[in-house]
């Protein structure tokens, strides 16, 4: 599994903001194939959206779109198909009761988010395909934030050519300032969410609903401040975003606020066939409704939840490749001795000279960036615990 499934070159480039639609290389024998987007995977059954512009569109649900259940064709037995993949399907693509289509080909991927084998999973895996952005959901308290975990997520995202949004939750309990200082120097965007000021009361109140807005009640009954949810929605607009986070950080609360009607918006659960129901461990793609509108009216992006992903094994990440995500550092590091680790104890690392040579007013920013970068580098080999 893993790397040999695809061309190494195809995840090196940073995808465009809107994501380019890959060309389909159809086999002649499957000239009748249609394109589907994988939104869910469950024990060998794949939930696809087929028809309309599902090949890549993020704006609006086409009228002729269907939810199709499919399995892999025999020639793909050893190939991993993941959420976010665009696939060619043949056979019964009616989406009707009991229908089952066949995936005959995976289209070229614009990005592949991977994890190396670790304690919780013995295989290197592609987690999600074709995503633009990794959203790391971290609570500011309860549970305490763990920078090691965040660092590893950042490395995995940059290695995949994805951008990073750090979503700091529970800002009603603690300040986000310290974490901002650690991650903004890395080019990580930071967004903060919190419980609505009257949240505690609303949850226990007579009807407990967020008044009138698109912000629905979360599973746990907690209402997030609508402004903070809309800020997150703004950062997800037009993009395919993967959300990761440890248990208890408020990821479900956030997703429920962003996608109040997840089932209807995505058809992840096919009520007719009962197929495609996602387990608690596999990723699932949810369409992001445009804020302030009815869920059915318009969509603007995808939110991919990854309930099973609690950590990223990073043994597959190469330093040289990770450096590409930091253009300025990458350029400086060209001057390093051969085999330089670029870590703080590396002899003659050019990155140290870069700090020494910096103008006085730029020095603190450079130093912050370098020390954050070195922290990322060490997280590659460090343990997640
Ligand atoms: N104070 C506060 N509590 C929050 C906030 N967001 C979520 N919570 C609470 O944190 C707890 C965990 O939230 P969940 O949304 O279930 O967390 P999760 O990350 O989905 O965790 P799992 O369901 O275990 O994967 C719940 O009791 C929420 O009510 C917040 O902004 N502020
Ligand atoms: Zn170096």
TrEMBL record:
<comment type="similarity">
    <text>Belongs to the TRAFAC class YlqF/YawG GTPase family. RsgA subfamily.</text>
</comment>
<feature type="domain" description="EngC GTPase">
    <location>
        <begin position="129"/>
        <end position="310"/>
    </location>
</feature>
<keyword id="KW-0963">Cytoplasm</keyword>
<dbReference type="GO" id="GO:0046872">
    <property type="term" value="F:metal ion binding"/>
</dbReference>
<dbReference type="GO" id="GO:0003924">
    <property type="term" value="F:GTPase activity"/>
</dbReference>
<keyword id="KW-0378">Hydrolase</keyword>
<feature type="binding site">
    <location>
        <begin position="245"/>
        <end position="253"/>
    </location>
    <ligand>
        <name>GTP</name>
    </ligand>
</feature>
<feature type="binding site">
    <location>
        <position position="349"/>
    </location>
    <ligand>
        <name>Zn(2+)</name>
    </ligand>
</feature>
<keyword id="KW-0547">Nucleotide-binding</keyword>
<dbReference type="Pfam" id="PF03193">
    <property type="entry name" value="RsgA_GTPase"/>
</dbReference>
<feature type="binding site">
    <location>
        <position position="342"/>
    </location>
    <ligand>
        <name>Zn(2+)</name>
    </ligand>
</feature>
<keyword id="KW-0342">GTP-binding</keyword>
<dbReference type="GO" id="GO:0005525">
    <property type="term" value="F:GTP binding"/>
</dbReference>
<dbReference type="GO" id="GO:0042274">
    <property type="term" value="P:ribosomal small subunit biogenesis"/>
</dbReference>
<dbReference type="InterPro" id="IPR004881">
    <property type="entry name" value="Ribosome_biogen_GTPase_RsgA"/>
</dbReference>
<comment type="function">
    <text>One of several proteins that assist in the late maturation steps of the functional core of the 30S ribosomal subunit. Helps release RbfA from mature subunits. May play a role in the assembly of ribosomal proteins into the subunit. Circularly permuted GTPase that catalyzes slow GTP hydrolysis, GTPase activity is stimulated by the 30S ribosomal subunit.</text>
</comment>
<keyword id="KW-0479">Metal-binding</keyword>
<feature type="domain" description="CP-type G">
    <location>
        <begin position="110"/>
        <end position="312"/>
    </location>
</feature>
<dbReference type="InterPro" id="IPR030378">
    <property type="entry name" value="G_CP_dom"/>
</dbReference>
<feature type="binding site">
    <location>
        <begin position="169"/>
        <end position="172"/>
    </location>
    <ligand>
        <name>GTP</name>
    </ligand>
</feature>
<feature type="compositionally biased region" description="Basic and acidic residues">
    <location>
        <begin position="1"/>
        <end position="13"/>
    </location>
</feature>
<protein>
    <recommendedName>
        <fullName>Small ribosomal subunit biogenesis GTPase RsgA</fullName>
        <ecNumber>3.6.1.-</ecNumber>
    </recommendedName>
</protein>
<dbReference type="InterPro" id="IPR010914">
    <property type="entry name" value="RsgA_GTPase_dom"/>
</dbReference>
<keyword id="KW-0694">RNA-binding</keyword>
<comment type="subunit">
    <text>Monomer. Associates with 30S ribosomal subunit, binds 16S rRNA.</text>
</comment>
<keyword id="KW-0690">Ribosome biogenesis</keyword>
<dbReference type="GO" id="GO:0005737">
    <property type="term" value="C:cytoplasm"/>
</dbReference>
<keyword id="KW-0699">rRNA-binding</keyword>
<feature type="binding site">
    <location>
        <position position="340"/>
    </location>
    <ligand>
        <name>Zn(2+)</name>
    </ligand>
</feature>
<feature type="compositionally biased region" description="Basic residues">
    <location>
        <begin position="14"/>
        <end position="25"/>
    </location>
</feature>
<dbReference type="GO" id="GO:0019843">
    <property type="term" value="F:rRNA binding"/>
</dbReference>
<feature type="binding site">
    <location>
        <position position="336"/>
    </location>
    <ligand>
        <name>Zn(2+)</name>
    </ligand>
</feature>
<keyword id="KW-0862">Zinc</keyword>
<feature type="region of interest" description="Disordered">
    <location>
        <begin position="1"/>
        <end position="31"/>
    </location>
</feature>
<dbReference type="InterPro" id="IPR027417">
    <property type="entry name" value="P-loop_NTPase"/>
</dbReference>
